[in-house]
Amino acid sequence: MSDYGQMLLLNGEDVDRLATMPLALAAAEEAARLVARGNLVTGRVQVNGPVAWMRVLAGMVTDLDLLGYKEFHRVGRDVRYHVHLYRESTGEMLGVVDGRRITSLRTAATAAAAIKHWAGGRAVRVGLIGSGEEAREGLRAMAGAVDVTGAAVFSPTQANREAFADEMSVEVGLPVVAASSQPDAIAGCDVLYVATSSHHEPFLHAADVATVGLLAAIGSTQPVHRELTGGVFVAAARTVVDTPDATHESGDCIEAASLRWEPAQAMLLGDYLRQDPGADAGLTIFKSVGSVEQDLVLAYHLLTSAQKSHSGVTVPDVASLRVMR
Fold it and tell me: Rounded to two decimals, what is the model's pTM?
Protein backbone atom coordinates (compact mmCIF):
# COMPACT_ATOMS: atom_id res chain seq x y z
CA MET A 1 0.00 0.00 0.00
CA SER A 2 1.27 3.48 -0.85
CA ASP A 3 2.36 5.70 2.01
CA TYR A 4 1.58 8.77 -0.08
CA GLY A 5 -1.21 11.13 0.91
CA GLN A 6 -3.96 12.44 -1.34
CA MET A 7 -4.07 15.73 -3.20
CA LEU A 8 -6.72 17.51 -5.23
CA LEU A 9 -6.27 18.69 -8.82
CA LEU A 10 -8.40 21.54 -10.21
CA ASN A 11 -8.23 22.29 -13.91
CA GLY A 12 -9.30 25.51 -15.62
CA GLU A 13 -12.90 24.40 -16.02
CA ASP A 14 -13.08 23.53 -12.32
CA VAL A 15 -11.75 26.97 -11.40
CA ASP A 16 -14.21 28.76 -13.68
CA ARG A 17 -17.11 26.83 -12.14
CA LEU A 18 -16.01 27.35 -8.55
CA ALA A 19 -14.84 30.96 -8.84
CA THR A 20 -17.97 32.78 -7.74
CA MET A 21 -17.60 36.42 -6.82
CA PRO A 22 -18.54 35.84 -3.15
CA LEU A 23 -15.73 33.26 -2.93
CA ALA A 24 -13.20 35.54 -4.64
CA LEU A 25 -14.21 38.53 -2.53
CA ALA A 26 -13.97 36.54 0.71
CA ALA A 27 -10.50 35.32 -0.29
CA ALA A 28 -9.38 38.84 -1.19
CA GLU A 29 -10.59 40.29 2.11
CA GLU A 30 -8.92 37.49 4.07
CA ALA A 31 -5.64 37.97 2.20
CA ALA A 32 -5.77 41.73 2.84
CA ARG A 33 -6.18 41.20 6.57
CA LEU A 34 -3.34 38.67 6.60
CA VAL A 35 -1.04 41.17 4.85
CA ALA A 36 -1.89 43.80 7.45
CA ARG A 37 -1.22 41.28 10.22
CA GLY A 38 2.23 40.70 8.76
CA ASN A 39 2.70 37.01 9.62
CA LEU A 40 3.87 36.17 6.09
CA VAL A 41 7.07 35.21 4.30
CA THR A 42 7.32 35.61 0.52
CA GLY A 43 9.94 35.43 -2.19
CA ARG A 44 10.31 35.19 -5.95
CA VAL A 45 12.66 34.05 -8.67
CA GLN A 46 12.66 34.42 -12.45
CA VAL A 47 14.79 32.62 -14.99
CA ASN A 48 15.06 33.63 -18.64
CA GLY A 49 16.24 31.44 -21.48
CA PRO A 50 16.58 31.88 -25.24
CA VAL A 51 13.05 30.63 -26.01
CA ALA A 52 11.26 30.53 -22.63
CA TRP A 53 11.04 32.16 -19.21
CA MET A 54 9.66 31.06 -15.86
CA ARG A 55 8.68 32.99 -12.74
CA VAL A 56 8.03 31.40 -9.35
CA LEU A 57 6.34 33.31 -6.52
CA ALA A 58 6.47 31.51 -3.18
CA GLY A 59 4.99 32.22 0.21
CA MET A 60 4.20 30.95 3.69
CA VAL A 61 0.84 32.00 5.17
CA THR A 62 1.25 30.80 8.75
CA ASP A 63 -2.17 31.94 9.96
CA LEU A 64 -3.76 29.52 7.48
CA ASP A 65 -1.10 26.81 7.91
CA LEU A 66 -0.23 27.20 4.22
CA LEU A 67 2.89 27.27 2.17
CA GLY A 68 2.99 27.20 -1.59
CA TYR A 69 3.89 28.86 -4.82
CA LYS A 70 2.51 30.09 -8.10
CA GLU A 71 4.60 29.37 -11.15
CA PHE A 72 4.03 30.55 -14.66
CA HIS A 73 6.14 30.00 -17.74
CA ARG A 74 6.02 31.30 -21.27
CA VAL A 75 7.19 29.75 -24.52
CA GLY A 76 6.49 32.00 -27.48
CA ARG A 77 2.95 33.28 -26.97
CA ASP A 78 1.87 30.35 -24.78
CA VAL A 79 1.73 30.88 -21.01
CA ARG A 80 0.80 28.27 -18.42
CA TYR A 81 0.08 28.88 -14.72
CA HIS A 82 -0.19 26.58 -11.71
CA VAL A 83 -0.61 27.12 -7.96
CA HIS A 84 0.77 24.42 -5.61
CA LEU A 85 -0.43 24.33 -1.99
CA TYR A 86 0.94 22.49 1.07
CA ARG A 87 0.32 22.38 4.82
CA GLU A 88 3.02 24.46 6.45
CA SER A 89 2.93 22.41 9.65
CA THR A 90 3.36 19.00 7.99
CA GLY A 91 4.56 19.58 4.43
CA GLU A 92 1.62 17.53 3.17
CA MET A 93 0.50 18.49 -0.32
CA LEU A 94 -3.06 19.81 -0.55
CA GLY A 95 -3.43 20.28 -4.27
CA VAL A 96 -2.56 21.88 -7.56
CA VAL A 97 -4.84 24.54 -9.04
CA ASP A 98 -4.80 25.76 -12.63
CA GLY A 99 -3.70 29.38 -12.38
CA ARG A 100 -4.83 30.78 -15.72
CA ARG A 101 -7.54 32.87 -14.08
CA ILE A 102 -6.02 33.23 -10.61
CA THR A 103 -4.04 36.43 -11.24
CA SER A 104 -6.79 38.44 -12.91
CA LEU A 105 -9.45 37.16 -10.48
CA ARG A 106 -7.52 37.96 -7.30
CA THR A 107 -6.53 41.37 -8.68
CA ALA A 108 -10.13 42.25 -9.51
CA ALA A 109 -11.54 40.86 -6.27
CA THR A 110 -8.97 42.76 -4.19
CA ALA A 111 -9.90 46.01 -5.91
CA ALA A 112 -13.59 45.18 -5.47
CA ALA A 113 -13.03 44.72 -1.73
CA ALA A 114 -11.65 48.26 -1.53
CA ILE A 115 -14.47 49.63 -3.66
CA LYS A 116 -17.15 47.83 -1.62
CA HIS A 117 -15.76 49.28 1.60
CA TRP A 118 -15.48 52.77 0.13
CA ALA A 119 -19.02 52.66 -1.28
CA GLY A 120 -20.54 51.68 2.06
CA GLY A 121 -23.71 50.37 0.48
CA ARG A 122 -24.09 53.25 -1.98
CA ALA A 123 -24.83 52.64 -5.66
CA VAL A 124 -22.00 53.64 -7.98
CA ARG A 125 -21.41 54.39 -11.62
CA VAL A 126 -18.18 52.96 -13.02
CA GLY A 127 -15.73 54.22 -15.61
CA LEU A 128 -13.13 51.87 -17.07
CA ILE A 129 -9.91 52.66 -18.90
CA GLY A 130 -8.81 49.52 -20.71
CA SER A 131 -10.81 46.75 -22.38
CA GLY A 132 -8.67 43.64 -21.89
CA GLU A 133 -9.21 40.65 -19.62
CA GLU A 134 -8.15 42.57 -16.50
CA ALA A 135 -10.84 45.18 -17.17
CA ARG A 136 -13.42 42.48 -17.86
CA GLU A 137 -12.60 40.69 -14.61
CA GLY A 138 -12.69 44.04 -12.83
CA LEU A 139 -16.21 44.82 -14.01
CA ARG A 140 -17.39 41.33 -13.06
CA ALA A 141 -15.95 41.81 -9.59
CA MET A 142 -17.42 45.28 -9.07
CA ALA A 143 -20.84 44.15 -10.29
CA GLY A 144 -20.69 41.28 -7.80
CA ALA A 145 -19.54 43.42 -4.88
CA VAL A 146 -21.50 46.68 -5.11
CA ASP A 147 -24.64 48.10 -6.70
CA VAL A 148 -23.35 49.27 -10.09
CA THR A 149 -25.88 51.38 -11.97
CA GLY A 150 -23.93 51.47 -15.23
CA ALA A 151 -20.49 51.67 -16.77
CA ALA A 152 -18.58 53.39 -19.55
CA VAL A 153 -15.39 52.00 -21.06
CA PHE A 154 -12.63 53.63 -23.09
CA SER A 155 -9.66 52.09 -24.85
CA PRO A 156 -7.80 53.53 -27.84
CA THR A 157 -9.08 50.86 -30.27
CA GLN A 158 -12.71 51.48 -31.13
CA ALA A 159 -13.45 47.85 -32.02
CA ASN A 160 -12.11 46.66 -28.66
CA ARG A 161 -14.14 49.07 -26.53
CA GLU A 162 -17.30 48.42 -28.53
CA ALA A 163 -16.86 44.65 -28.18
CA PHE A 164 -16.28 45.07 -24.45
CA ALA A 165 -19.44 47.15 -24.07
CA ASP A 166 -21.60 44.74 -26.06
CA GLU A 167 -20.34 41.57 -24.43
CA MET A 168 -20.10 42.79 -20.84
CA SER A 169 -23.57 44.40 -20.97
CA VAL A 170 -24.96 40.93 -21.56
CA GLU A 171 -22.67 39.15 -19.12
CA VAL A 172 -23.16 41.40 -16.08
CA GLY A 173 -26.68 42.56 -16.94
CA LEU A 174 -25.83 46.26 -16.78
CA PRO A 175 -25.80 49.09 -19.31
CA VAL A 176 -22.18 49.37 -20.49
CA VAL A 177 -21.40 51.99 -23.11
CA ALA A 178 -18.30 52.48 -25.24
CA ALA A 179 -16.96 55.99 -24.64
CA SER A 180 -15.36 57.75 -27.59
CA SER A 181 -12.75 59.45 -25.38
CA GLN A 182 -11.09 59.09 -22.00
CA PRO A 183 -12.89 62.16 -20.56
CA ASP A 184 -16.22 60.69 -21.68
CA ALA A 185 -15.50 57.48 -19.76
CA ILE A 186 -14.56 59.43 -16.64
CA ALA A 187 -17.41 61.96 -16.73
CA GLY A 188 -20.04 61.20 -14.12
CA CYS A 189 -18.35 58.10 -12.71
CA ASP A 190 -17.98 57.51 -8.98
CA VAL A 191 -15.37 54.77 -9.41
CA LEU A 192 -12.70 54.74 -12.11
CA TYR A 193 -11.05 51.36 -12.81
CA VAL A 194 -7.77 51.67 -14.68
CA ALA A 195 -6.46 48.40 -16.14
CA THR A 196 -4.09 48.93 -19.03
CA SER A 197 -0.77 47.66 -20.34
CA SER A 198 0.58 51.20 -20.58
CA HIS A 199 4.37 51.39 -20.39
CA HIS A 200 6.62 54.39 -19.79
CA GLU A 201 4.15 57.24 -20.43
CA PRO A 202 1.43 58.01 -17.84
CA PHE A 203 -1.87 59.23 -19.23
CA LEU A 204 -3.95 60.28 -16.20
CA HIS A 205 -3.35 63.61 -14.45
CA ALA A 206 -4.87 64.99 -11.27
CA ALA A 207 -7.16 67.34 -13.22
CA ASP A 208 -8.53 64.38 -15.22
CA VAL A 209 -9.86 62.64 -12.09
CA ALA A 210 -10.84 65.65 -10.00
CA THR A 211 -14.49 64.54 -9.81
CA VAL A 212 -13.82 60.83 -9.20
CA GLY A 213 -14.46 59.37 -5.75
CA LEU A 214 -12.30 56.26 -5.90
CA LEU A 215 -9.66 55.43 -8.49
CA ALA A 216 -8.55 51.78 -8.67
CA ALA A 217 -5.27 51.53 -10.60
CA ILE A 218 -4.16 47.96 -11.20
CA GLY A 219 -2.09 48.07 -14.40
CA SER A 220 1.22 49.58 -13.26
CA THR A 221 2.95 46.74 -11.40
CA GLN A 222 6.61 47.36 -12.31
CA PRO A 223 8.89 50.43 -12.27
CA VAL A 224 8.61 50.81 -16.06
CA HIS A 225 4.81 50.68 -16.03
CA ARG A 226 2.91 53.95 -15.91
CA GLU A 227 -0.78 54.87 -15.75
CA LEU A 228 -1.04 57.76 -13.27
CA THR A 229 1.21 60.77 -12.99
CA GLY A 230 2.74 61.32 -9.58
CA GLY A 231 0.57 64.40 -9.18
CA VAL A 232 -2.55 62.22 -8.87
CA PHE A 233 -1.18 60.78 -5.62
CA VAL A 234 -0.18 64.21 -4.35
CA ALA A 235 -3.70 65.51 -4.96
CA ALA A 236 -5.49 62.48 -3.47
CA ALA A 237 -6.96 62.57 0.02
CA ARG A 238 -6.01 58.95 0.69
CA THR A 239 -3.99 56.15 -0.91
CA VAL A 240 -4.74 52.51 -0.10
CA VAL A 241 -2.37 49.75 -1.28
CA ASP A 242 -2.81 46.00 -1.44
CA THR A 243 0.76 45.30 -0.31
CA PRO A 244 3.66 47.42 1.01
CA ASP A 245 5.55 46.56 -2.19
CA ALA A 246 3.18 48.76 -4.18
CA THR A 247 4.85 51.95 -2.94
CA HIS A 248 8.22 51.05 -4.46
CA GLU A 249 7.41 48.59 -7.28
CA SER A 250 4.90 50.62 -9.29
CA GLY A 251 6.24 53.29 -11.63
CA ASP A 252 3.28 55.46 -10.65
CA CYS A 253 4.25 55.41 -6.98
CA ILE A 254 7.95 55.87 -7.73
CA GLU A 255 7.25 59.14 -9.52
CA ALA A 256 4.84 60.24 -6.81
CA ALA A 257 7.52 59.67 -4.18
CA SER A 258 9.85 61.97 -6.11
CA LEU A 259 7.29 64.74 -5.65
CA ARG A 260 5.55 65.63 -2.38
CA TRP A 261 3.86 62.27 -1.80
CA GLU A 262 5.02 60.31 1.22
CA PRO A 263 4.82 56.51 0.68
CA ALA A 264 4.66 55.89 4.44
CA GLN A 265 1.25 57.58 4.46
CA ALA A 266 -0.24 54.87 2.23
CA MET A 267 -2.66 52.61 4.10
CA LEU A 268 -2.76 48.84 3.71
CA LEU A 269 -6.06 47.50 2.44
CA GLY A 270 -6.39 45.24 5.48
CA ASP A 271 -6.19 48.28 7.76
CA TYR A 272 -8.59 50.24 5.57
CA LEU A 273 -11.18 47.45 5.80
CA ARG A 274 -11.14 47.81 9.60
CA GLN A 275 -11.94 51.52 9.47
CA ASP A 276 -15.20 53.30 8.93
CA PRO A 277 -14.68 55.10 5.60
CA GLY A 278 -17.39 57.60 6.51
CA ALA A 279 -18.07 60.33 3.99
CA ASP A 280 -14.65 60.43 2.36
CA ALA A 281 -13.73 63.89 1.11
CA GLY A 282 -11.60 64.05 -2.00
CA LEU A 283 -10.10 61.26 -4.06
CA THR A 284 -9.26 57.82 -2.68
CA ILE A 285 -6.68 55.87 -4.71
CA PHE A 286 -6.50 52.09 -4.50
CA LYS A 287 -3.15 50.99 -5.92
CA SER A 288 -2.53 47.30 -6.56
CA VAL A 289 0.54 45.38 -7.70
CA GLY A 290 -0.53 41.94 -6.48
CA SER A 291 1.32 39.51 -4.24
CA VAL A 292 1.66 35.76 -3.92
CA GLU A 293 -0.34 35.47 -0.69
CA GLN A 294 -3.38 36.67 -2.65
CA ASP A 295 -2.84 33.80 -5.10
CA LEU A 296 -2.36 31.24 -2.34
CA VAL A 297 -5.40 32.30 -0.32
CA LEU A 298 -7.64 32.33 -3.40
CA ALA A 299 -6.39 28.88 -4.45
CA TYR A 300 -7.01 27.62 -0.91
CA HIS A 301 -10.59 28.90 -0.99
CA LEU A 302 -11.07 27.19 -4.36
CA LEU A 303 -9.71 23.89 -3.01
CA THR A 304 -11.97 24.14 0.05
CA SER A 305 -15.00 24.79 -2.15
CA ALA A 306 -14.01 21.90 -4.42
CA GLN A 307 -13.82 19.51 -1.47
CA LYS A 308 -17.30 20.53 -0.32
CA SER A 309 -18.79 20.12 -3.80
CA HIS A 310 -16.75 17.01 -4.72
CA SER A 311 -15.19 18.82 -7.67
CA GLY A 312 -11.81 18.20 -9.21
CA VAL A 313 -9.81 15.00 -9.23
CA THR A 314 -8.27 13.42 -6.13
CA VAL A 315 -5.00 11.59 -6.80
CA PRO A 316 -2.15 10.19 -4.70
CA ASP A 317 0.58 12.66 -3.80
CA VAL A 318 3.53 11.86 -6.07
CA ALA A 319 6.14 13.17 -3.60
CA SER A 320 7.74 10.49 -1.45
CA LEU A 321 8.96 11.32 2.03
CA ARG A 322 12.58 11.61 3.07
CA VAL A 323 13.48 12.13 6.72
CA MET A 324 16.51 14.39 7.20
CA ARG A 325 18.93 13.98 10.10
Answer: 0.93
- pLDDT, tens only, 37-67: 999 999 999 999 999 999 999 999 999 999 9
By CB atoms closer than 10 A (0-12, 13-18, 19+), residue 172 is middle
How many whole angstroms separate alpha carbon 319 and alpha carbon 187?
56
- Rounded distance between C-alpha atoms, residue 70 and residue 199, angstroms: 25
Domains, the chain, ranges and CATH? 6-103+292-316 (3.30.1780.10), 107-287 (3.40.50.720)
Phi-psi region of 65 (alpha: psi -120 to 50; beta: other; left: phi over 0): left
DSSP state of 319: P
**63, 135, 206, 314 from 142: Cα distances, Å:** 28, 10, 23, 33
pLDDT digits (tens, 9 = 90+) for 129-176: 999 999 999 999 999 999 999 999 999 999 999 999 999 999 999 999
Calculate the dihedral angle through the C-alpha atoms of 216, 218, 222, 227, rounding to the nearest 10 degrees: -60
Mapped onto helix, strand or coil, the DSSP state of residue 7 is: strand
Q: 93 to each of 57, 181, 279, how far by Cα in Å?
A: 17, 50, 46
User: What pLDDT score was predicted for residue 279?
Assistant: 55
Section 243-252 average pLDDT: 90
